[in-house]
Specification:
heterodimer, A: mainly alpha, Cytochrome Bc1 Complex, Chain D, domain 2, B: mainly beta, Methylamine Dehydrogenase, Chain H, 4-stranded antiparallel sheet
Chain lengths: ~130, ~375
């Protein structure tokens, strides 16, 4: 129950910072929740994304996301990073580093969903 | 029962005397377990629990082939007695580790660490810490991650520093006071390294630029030189979803077969002059390119999303002769000591498949929980392993 509440809060943050990044008007809280819900991947895709996170992001960031050649992706490690920049990093990669663009496998909406999960640490369980 | 000398109680099945030349271990990465396997019977002898985070793991063997040293992602170093089928000793030695090596004389085990970045030396018998060699700090003030650690003749270890672009030769003749010779400016982001089977050459692969860094360990005074410079010819490389691994690399009939970074190619280099002689187009970005011990074939596996395939290259014609699909998410392959069989781990199918390397047909399948690395005791006698 607690986990669910935290996820929704993170989704609000992601949706509003994404709107700002896109140059749009800042969304009001309830609207942002609706946007995030509309964009959320379905349950089967959520399982695929969490698997991708653990296994393939995990190649560099560690299967438990505690870091490797890439930095840790734990909530504590990401605390100071804006969600929008995390989403951009997933989709477009970071030139000059080993982080590749994942847009061939992960859409921007899916990256937003993943970032919300990462920020709350809800990356292990079912959707 | 010679090996009962320590007064330890062994399981009944371990009390039969046996050698270890056909033993090995398979890492079960998600569960943090290790299987002890027998390559003659093609069976699993035991599953040992309690290794912590093995999501990335590497193994070296004692020179008597009895003990496996397991380096886990969480920085733990475990010494496994494969005959007694138990962890004899286990120490936390870092918070994030990538692997290790064992010295020429078998007395010193070295761990290469990401956090804190550096190399630590341990007594192979007791795992007592002998020396802590901290890496050069990067631009952010944090010690560089250390990659590509390998043993070399003369009681040395060689390693590369990912964040600061260095190769270090660590003389561990006196392991409590190691001497470090540093080669700086070797290239951007060395991601792994290897020592050739004869122990003469150390090669670091570079992620940050096209090329590899080569050090002649017979003549370190000549410095590090670049080979295969600009092999990508300035073309944009493909996104890299998994770094290649160079240990276990392929030197076959005077040629080295090396994974290209960000290209669906294996590079073929003449080891006499280190010039490129060919490129073999393959099914994806290579992770491991490993020669069958007789050097007639090189087997290659691939990074996500092409990690369901394994290809076999004929080293004479330098062409792919067979594409195999052993299972989902192939992470590693290991040849038996003389190469009549190769064991392949398929993480997402929870199995290890054994192939006959003459017929290229599967001959056995073993169940394993998300298997990754496979390591056979023949490594104990090989330099650079």
């Amino acid at each position: 129950m607690l986990r669910r509440t935290r996820t929704v809060v993170a989704a609000v943050l992601v949706a509003s910072s994404a709107a700002v990044a896109a140059g749009g008007a800042e969304a009001e809280g309830p609207v942002a929740v609706a946007v995030a819900a509309a964009l959320a991947p379905d349950a089967a895709r959520q399982r695929e994304l969490l698997r991708l996170l653990k296994q393939d992001c995990g190649s560099c960031h560690g299967m438990r996301l505690t870091g490797g050649l890439g930095p840790p992706l734990t909530p504590e490690a990401l605390r100071t990073k804006p969600a929008a920049s995390l989403v951009a990093t997933i989709v477009s990669g970071r030139p000059g580093t080993a982080m590749p663009p994942w847009r061939r496998f992960v859409s921007e909406a899916e990256a937003e969903w993943l970032v919300a999960r990462l920020l709350t640490g809800a990356t292990d369980g079912s959707p | 029962m010679l090996f009962l000398a320590g007064g330890a109680t062994l399981p009944a099945h371990a009390q039969q005397m046996r050698g270890t030349g056909d033993l090995g271990v398979v890492i079960e990465r998600a569960a943090g377990r290790v299987q002890v396997i027998d390559t003659t019977a093609r069976s699993s002898l035991a599953t040992i629990d309690g290794f912590g985070d093995l999501s990335h793991a590497s193994v070296v063997f004692s020179r008597d082939g009895r003990y496996a040293y397991v380096f886990g992602r969480d920085g733990a170093l475990s010494k496994v007695d494969m005959l007694a089928q138990r962890i004899e000793r286990r120490i936390p030695q870092a918070s994030n580790s990538i692997g290790g090596a064992i010295s020429q004389d078998g007395r010193v085990v070295a761990a290469q660490n990401y956090t804190p970045g550096g190399v630590k030396l341990f007594d192979a018998a007791t795992l007592e810490l002998l020396a802590d060699v901290r890496a050069t700090p990067g631009p952010d003030g944090v010690p560089s991650k250390v990659v590509g650690l390998a043993d070399a003749p003369g009681g040395k270890f060689v390693a590369s520093l990912f964040d600061t672009g260095e190769i270090w030769v660590i003389d561990a003749a006196n392991p409590r006071a190691p001497k470090v010779e540093k080669f700086t400016g070797v290239g951007k982001q060395p991601y792994d390294g290897l020592v050739t089977p004869d122990g003469r050459w150390y090669i670091a692969g570079l992620f940050g630029e096209d090329g590899l860094a080569l050090l002649d360990l017979w003549h370190p005074e000549r410095g590090v030189k670049r080979i295969l410079d600009k092999y990508g010819r300035g073309e944009e490389k493909l996104p890299v979803y998994k770094m290649p691994h160079l240990r276990g690399w392929a030197v076959a009939a005077g040629y080295a077969f090396l994974p290209a970074i960000g290209r669906n190619e294996v590079l073929v280099v003449d080891t006499r002059d280190w010039k490129e002689v060919a490129r073999v187009p393959v099914a994806g970005q290579p992770v491991f390119a490993i020669a069958r011990p007789d050097a007639r074939q090189v087997w290659v596996n691939f990074a996500f999303p092409d990690n369901g395939k394994v290809q076999v290259i004929d080293t004479e014609t330098r062409a792919v002769v067979k594409t195999l699909e052993p299972g989902k998410a192939v992470l590693h392959l290991e040849f038996t000591p003389r190469g009549e069989a190769v064991w392949i781990s398929a993480r997402d199918d929870n199995k290890v498949v054994v192939y006959d390397t003459a017929t290229l047909a599967p001959v056995a399948t073993l169940a394993a929980d998300a298997p990754s690395g496979i390591f056979f005791t023949a490594r104990a006698a090989r330099m650079g392993f």
